[in-house]
Amino acid sequence: MPETPGDVPATGDRRRNHELRERLDEIVLLSRKLSQDGPSMSRDELDATRTRIEWLAEEIWAAAVYGPLEERTRDEAPEPGEYATDEEG
Q1: Is 19 a domain residue?
Q2: Does any domain span residue 33?
Q3: Which one, 14, 26, 42, 66, has least CB within 10 Å?
Q4: How does 51-67 read in b/e, with b if 16+ C-beta sit within 10 Å?
Q5: What is the pLDDT of residue 84?
């Protein structure tokens, strides 16, 4: 077990939260696509991309705060997509 967050685990794998890594990778790819193709995308494509990025942002926040989905307990976190913020209340 690593002593500090920066230490490499005995398995040699620094990525213990694979869900977080996958979501971050996807949001980076979407951001790159948007920056390259955004001006030529239709309004529907832009809306769909924005919706996906907003969903990914919620999932990234939850994965960072609560850990991977498979490790969360029912009492710790809401289901994906059900994250409330103070602004929504």
Answers
A1: no
A2: no
A3: 42
A4: eeeeebeebbebbeeeb
A5: 58
Question: Which residues touch 71 (CB under 8 Å, ≥6 apart)?
Answer: none
- Residues 6+ positions from 81 with CB-CB distance below 8 Å: 55, 58
Q: What string of pLDDT tens digits covers the 89 residues of the chain? A: 445 555 555 555 556 788 889 999 999 999 999 999 999 999 999 999 999 999 999 999 988 888 887 777 655 656 666 665 555 54
The count of domains in the chain is: 1
The answer to whether residues 27 and 53 touch, using CB atoms and an 8 Å cutoff, is yes
Q: Is residue 21 part of a domain?
A: no
**Residue 55 belongs to domain spanning:** 39-69
Q: Is residue 44 in a domain? A: yes
